[in-house]
Fold these 2 entries.
Entry 1:
Amino acid sequence: MGTTSEKKILDEEASDRLSFITFIIPKFADTYKMNRQEAYRYLKKYGGLDFLFEHWWALHTDNPFWAVRDMQEICYQNGGQR
């Protein structure tokens, strides 16, 4: 088991990840005129959610516009609509 400071760092990272994900999915939904459930299902179906979970750290440092655009591009490459 890790030390208390290691656990705190992991907890902070998980909190940061969750905060970003709960921020960016509604941004995606607003951009593409979807409700949040539709956006979540679309992202899950076409790989955008996997991309988001895998690359959240890099995506959160960029302008939300570009993060949403990157997620849409991944979905498009996996069969989603433009």
Note: The chain is about 80% helix and 0% strand.
Entry 2:
Amino acid sequence: MADVNKLHVKKGDTVVILSGKDKGKKGKIIEALPKKGKVVVEGVNKVKRHTKPTQSMPQGGIMVKEAPIHSAKAMLVCPACDKPTRIKKSALTNGKMARTCKKCGEIIDKDK
């Protein structure tokens, strides 16, 4: 069984792309793929797929969708200071760990 890689971003985070043809674009993470170390970002790395007509999609044709990119190419954007930032793990009072912004110190994981 392969080791599962821990990603620094997760589904729902807003990220900025650091390299490639979509450098500088912001988008929301649609899907995280930790086994592959990749993420799917909304509006980034669009590819065209030629699909045959099926019962569920009788039209067929050329579909445009987002393809996965390596997670290292996506940097988290802090919701508080709205800047691309690295994260650090900090302990909360209830003993859980939370992701915090390295620039402003604000806690990113509000739900926990």
Note: The mean pLDDT is 90.
